[in-house]
Amino acid sequence: MVHLRQHDNGHDNSVQKRLQQPPTSSTVFLRRPSTSSSTSTASDENAPVISDRPAGYILETYGLPVRTIGQGTGGYVKLHQGCDGRLYAVKTFTFPSTSDRTKMTTEMNVRQWKHLLDEASFSLSLRHPNVIRTYQFVRETDGTVYSVMEYCEKDLFTVVQDGGLTRGEIDRLFLQLVSGVAYLHDAARVAHRDMKLDNLCVDEEGNLKIIDFGCSSTFDPLQPAQTRGICGSDPYIAPEVFVPRAQYDPRKVDVWALGIIFLAMVSGHFPWEVAKAEDSNYTLYLKYRGRVIDHWLARDDPANGVIKSMLVIDPLMRPTIDSVMREPWMVELTERYGRVPT
């Protein structure tokens, strides 16, 4: 596990990372958890735009790779620099060529291809200042598929791990995160399902960007939003996701994950390793509920009640992202930092 390092950045009002033991059996230090397996139920109603291009198109158009910058759901991401100096994040998916009939007809590859079509379809349509911009999906002649996105230098895990964020900066980033998720749920009809510090980037102007839609699912606004299967990284996953064969609302799962993200940002720790009864920290949360949250956030902290509501065990009682946006604390943050379009 990775201990959150605190660096002296000269800010007197930096958030003090709590290094003492919480009122739980053990401290869960901030570290990059592995991603659990996924079963997505995304829709395939809208045909995506995946351009077929000759071999070498990505290198000729977006320049040579500089270095590997991440491992996303279903592929790896490299930094490319074009001849004009512009930087791009290029994610590589390996998928069989349509000429390879043997591989293409296997159930696994057909399912993977459909999921990739879903991801391409809604990723290309997303337009929000706090959602990463996807410029193009390309399939070269060898069957390799690439997505080309805007580049952000840092992920939020690194920013939080390095310390130095003031409480005001945390509040501002959280407002942008909630605004971005509200756009996804309300306008794009997309649930992310893998919200975590690693899937949030910060650009050179200090603005947050939501990335990696490989676990996402779309939904019909006129029908109950239900999906099934485990997707995400353990410390962030809502408890209902672990119920065998159960369906759940992926939007409420996103809301839960945002509550975990805020606690990690202000404290430097995960409140528990996984939201299961065998986790002793989570068991204490089941027993004491609000008292555990009070350790991470003082009772008079304006965020306290909001985060408690986002971490309600029963998803039916957990607020929607719109309800979170209407909370007095969020309204105050909007007035302070400006409204982000949703």
UniProtKB/TrEMBL annotation:
Comp. bias regions, Basic and acidic residues: 1-15
Record region (Disordered): 1-49
Keyword entries, A-Z: ATP-binding, Kinase, Nucleotide-binding, Serine/threonine-protein kinase, Transferase
Keyword 4Fe-4S assigned: no
GO biological process, one term: intracellular signal transduction
Gene Ontology MF terms in the entry: ATP binding; protein serine/threonine kinase activity
Start-end of Low complexity biased regions: 34-43
InterPro entries documented for this protein: Kinase-like_dom_sf, Prot_kinase_dom, Ser/Thr_kinase_AS
UniProt source species: Coemansia guatemalensis
Similarity section: Belongs to the protein kinase superfamily. CAMK Ser/Thr protein kinase family. NIM1 subfamily.
Polar residues: compositionally biased ranges: 16-28
Residue ranges constituting the Protein kinase domain according to the UniProt record: 63-330
This protein's name: Serine/threonine protein kinase
Gene Ontology cellular-component terms listed: cytoplasm
